[in-house]
């Protein structure tokens, strides 16, 4: 009997992850080159980490962490974009943001006030996946120094992150053609439908 090693290994990893949060942290491993993972490998990684990340983000009741998984997912799966420490990124957008954001537009536009973007991140350390912070951008009308974005985040264990607005915006300002927002890499962008 012949087994395809990659799906079989992914199934074993996912099965081990179902043993509980401690197991999922210890058993979600990655190949040496995370940029060369197949869609199935990335899906298995996300399946392995998803509940563990959500449990951590929601553990202290932060409002965005409690709500974001009910929002529109802006990508078909997480992907490594090279930004945010070369972590796997998976973006969700609230109802106010969804229509405009999912156009993945560049040009003269501004997101509506009240738009909220939440970016899950899966980090990597010593070849194993790790929960990373949930990063949040909220469009406001009173922050001209940051193009009216307020940056915040939730630690992997649910606590509020201390966020330096200028630190975040210094990078996001380079996305001036898209209202200071980075989009998921093109091959994983969700459709607006």
Keywords:
193 residues; alpha+beta; six-stranded antiparallel sheet; 6 helices; disordered N terminus
**Strand runs, count:** 6
Q: What is the makeup of the main sheet?
A: 6 strands, antiparallel
Which oligomeric form is depicted?
single chain
Number of helices: 6
- Share of residues in strands: 15-25%
Number of domains: 1
Mean pLDDT: 85
Q: Any idea what the radius of gyration is?
A: 17 Å
What string gives the helices and strands in order?
HHHHEEEHEEEH
Bulk shape: globular
Low-pLDDT parts are: 1-26
Give a quick rundown of the structure.
The protein is of the alpha+beta class. The chain has six helices and six strands; from the N terminus they run ααααβββαβββα. It has one domain.
